[in-house]
């Protein structure tokens, strides 16, 4: 069996005395669209932040692409990765947030070429060519020279996706990417994500868009209070939830 893209084994995370993740076990397979749903405060963002090296877990094991997050294992002992090594690992993971946080003083094109040039050392011409292809892919080739303030929220979010893709990640994390958008702009962003899924990208998507989860998702985990309450194929969980907490949540978002 091939190693999953993400493997969490009894992952615990606390902020001070507040336990936020209370033993998360899950696996995200390669090429899968993995939907993470649950009420506000259940620990979804924290879990994504742990995967992306933005938080350290307190107990358990978390692997991305077969490697322990934050550590190397030598002779049965764990050694914390140096900042430089963490930065290298993080390049392989793209993240898209609820708020678009593009660089406001850069055009769409510059937002996308920044990291490939500065971090990966690509030539400017090369990075621009790639950025134009990505803008084409997200339907915004004509907005290359626009600044974020000259784009709608949905367009900014599509640029943010293109910017993440420019680093050629092996895993994309989406944290409620459409929650801050006006309803009429949600569809364009979901279409881009659907296309990305069809192209085979491994994606973890925190979302309240159950239509997307049902149509595009390969797996769905329902989290509440820092634990996985239930999981399965999205259609299965959404049509036939086994737990009262899942039913209560779904009755609010469906
Ligand atoms: P979700 O994304 O599911 O809404 P979060 O992961 O953002 O949940 O938060 C889970 C819990 O952790 C919440 O109770 C939140 O207040 C708490 N929390 C999140 N980040 C921090 C932090 N940096 N310091 C202290 N508590 C935090
Ligand atoms: Mg969140």
Automatic annotation (TrEMBL):
Q: Which Pfam families match?
A: ABC_tran (PF00005)
Q: Does the keyword Transport belong to this entry?
A: yes
Q: Which GO terms describe its molecular function?
A: ATP binding
Q: Which UniProt keywords apply?
A: ATP-binding, Nucleotide-binding, Transport
Residue stretches in coiled coil: none
The record's section on SMART domains has: AAA
Q: Give start and end of each ABC transporter domain.
A: 6-250
For this chain, the family text in UniProt reads:
Belongs to the ABC transporter superfamily.
The protein in question is named Amino acid ABC transporter ATP-binding protein
Organism whose genome encodes this protein: Streptacidiphilus monticola
């Amino acid at each position: 069996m091939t190693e999953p893209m993400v493997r969490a084994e009894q992952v615990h995370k606390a902020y001070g005395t507040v336990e936020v993740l209370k033993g998360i076990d899950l696996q995200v397979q390669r090429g899968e669209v993995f939907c993470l749903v649950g009420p506000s405060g259940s620990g979804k963002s924290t879990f994504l932040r742990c995967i992306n090296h933005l938080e350290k877990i307190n107990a358990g094991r978390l692997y991305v692409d077969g490697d322990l997050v934050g550590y190397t294992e030598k002779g049965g002992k764990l050694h914390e990765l140096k900042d430089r090594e963490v930065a290298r690992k993080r390049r392989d993971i793209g993240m898209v947030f609820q708020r678009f946080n593009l660089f406001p003083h850069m055009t769409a094109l510059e937002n996308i070429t920044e990291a490939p040039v500065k971090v990966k050392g690509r030539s400017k011409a090369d990075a621009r060519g790639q950025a134009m292809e990505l803008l084409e892919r997200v339907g915004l080739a004509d907005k290359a020279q626009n600044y974020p303030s000259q784009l709608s929220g949905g367009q900014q979010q599509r640029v943010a996706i293109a910017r993440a893709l420019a680093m050629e990640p092996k895993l994309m994390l989406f944290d409620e990417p459409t929650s801050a958008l006006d309803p009429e702009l949600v569809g364009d962003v979901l279409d881009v994500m659907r296309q990305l899924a069809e192209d085979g990208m491994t994606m973890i998507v925190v979302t309240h868009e159950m239509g997307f989860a049902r149509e595009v998702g390969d797996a769905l985990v329902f989290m509440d209070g820092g634990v996985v309450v239930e999981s399965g194929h999205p259609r299965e969980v959404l049509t036939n939830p086994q737990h009262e907490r899942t039913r209560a949540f779904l009755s609010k978002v469906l």
